[in-house]
Amino acid sequence: MSHLTELAAIILFGIGFTLLLVDRNLIKKIIGFSMTDSGMYLYLAAKGYITGRKAPIVVNGVTEMEAYINPIPAGLVLTGIVVSVASSAVMLALTVRLYRRYGTLNIDEIADRAGRAGKEDA
Amino acid sequence: MQVLMILLLVLVIACALAVALTKNLLTAAVVFMTQSLALSVIWLILESPDLGITEAAVGAGVDSLLLFATLKKIRAIDASIRRKEEDGHGEAP
Amino acid sequence: MAKLRENLPSSRWGRFLRWLREGDDVLDRSMAEALEAPAPAPADALVPLPIPRRLTRTRQRNLTRMEKRLRALYVVTAVLICSGIIALLLVTTAGLPDFGDPDNPANNEVPRHYIEKGLEETGAVNIVAGMILDYRAFDTLGESNVLFVAVCAVIILLRLHSGDPRERLRDEADERSREPGHDIILQVVAALIIPLILLFGVYVILNGHLSPGGGFSGGAVMGAALILFQLAFGERHTARFFTFRTFRIVSVLALGFYASAKAYSFFTGANHLPSFITPGIPGKIFSAGLIPYLNIAVGMVVCCTMYALYSLFRKGDV
User: What dihedral angle (degrees, nearest 10) is formed by the CA atoms of C162, C166, C171, C173?
Assistant: First the structure.
């Protein structure tokens, strides 16, 4: 049972994805999207870990490869975390504008009122 | 360390389930913040301290703060709409 | 929800279609028509806009039985599909190499080069920082760019000083709860703790190539300090040192410096110009070539971005 971290990452991804698809509240959808991202980062970073080795910061001038973990997935995930917060911010701004326009956070109601508004204006 | 890792992973999944099943948005935001915190410690156990600091500052900090700010703004809009409904529709043409 | 545009005959696409059908003189005719059209009427006096009908709290109509059944079917299908995806991923993961195995295919010659030659080629003691700011500096430029574009998008969506003064009156009435309530505990604690947080943020940024941290984490910490300052002391005090102009200047200068320092290799080839900045002695702060300066640039961008995002949500202006 060595793939414990990957298992948790996949379950987190699944819960986030289900939340994104099923829940009708816009804010819960955004939280689900963010959770999906976190699950993917956990999976990536677990691929870089090597048992028994230390973090990739050079101590005492030891520069053999056998002393450190793989640094590449950590670099990729670092970029990903910041991009995830940026896209969350844009989605939340869109939610605020939608709420100001339609008065509800329920996506079925928004589609309904938008459809009715379209029929009124046309 | 293995036991701590298992506990933290169980905490992360429990927080995810709690966010999925609650209806109160404020609860969801706070539990999401807790999940970020647990994830930050997991990064440290996986020997990536850069990710740990960044997740703690960004995930448990700014990301959750934006959620709270959005909720506050939505309630603010909600309160002002109700106020205008109460005293605006009485007089306006 | 696609509506036909009202000005289709006089828009560019409409004119192009007419030109296709009829020939050249239709363009001259439509230009003459556009020049003769009367100017639009001036705006009314400053009366706040009435709230549109659809914003009032209508009761949610009850779902019909058919819709309830469809909704349940949708939920069941979605859960089944997600469970299928999870099962597929689990089966795939079981076939992957073990967790933490040194013989993973991911540990090939690329990490070997980064770890073994990283210290002498980049001079950075933190191998990850040296990797993302020297070997793979272009990815970090893309990421700073994404942050910048995200703030631009949020400014477009949320910035309150629009051209229409009536809308501004209505929005200002909504945003009345901006000033703090003279919370004495918060102000005293914030006055004690904000310098420490800023100092810690500066430390993390400057030591990005020597210890864990770097531009992103340090920038986020400094942004959090600025957010606390605005929460405790209000926007009037914050506007003394951080306005929209400051944000613009700092962001553009930092991003411009980063781009000009690392993106000229489109023109000179994959190896940069021979650099006169030596890696220096590893372990000192001013070593590792350009990395401390790039860290500072990235830290500035991230700090301004985090504060600007929060401030746009809270009061509609940076």
Answer: 150
Interface residue A27 vs chain C (CB under 8 A): no
Residue with tokens 């080795």: A53
The Cα of B35 is separated from the nearest Cα of chain C by a number of Å equal to 19
For residue B24, tell me if it sits in a domain.
Answer: yes
Q: At what angle do helices C291-315 and C137-158 cross, to 10 degrees?
A: 20
User: Which chain B residues are Cβ-neighbours of C310 within 8 angstroms?
Assistant: 62, 65-66, 69
* C106, A47 contact by CB (below 8 A): yes
Instruction: Supply the CATH number for residue A10's domain.
Output: 1.10.287.3510
Domain, as residue range, for B19: 2-88
Structure tokens that stand for C175 in this block = 């945003």
- Domain assignment present for C125: yes
Could you read off the pLDDT of C2-38 as tens digits, one per residue? 556 667 777 787 777 777 777 666 556 666 666 666 5
Number of domains in chain A: 1
Instruction: Kindly state whether residue B78 falls inside one of the protein's structural domains.
Output: yes
pTM of the model: 0.81
Classify the complex by whether its ipTM is higher than 0.85, answering yes or no: yes
B45 vs B56: CA distance, rounded Å: 14
Say if the Cβ atoms of A45 and B46 lie within 8 Å: yes
| B60 belongs to a structural domain | yes
Would you put residue C236 in left (φ > 0), alpha (ψ -120 to 50) or beta? alpha
The domain total for chain C is 1
Per-residue pLDDT of B55-69, as tens digits, reads 999 988 899 999 999
Q: Please name the residues in contact with C316: beta carbons below 8 A apart, sequence gap of 6 or more.
A: C158, C159, C160, C161, C171, C175
The token duo for C232 is: 């405790």
Q: Is residue B93 part of a domain?
A: no
| Nearest residue of A to residue B3, measured between CA atoms | A4
- Residue C96, φ and ψ in degrees, nearest 5: -75, 165
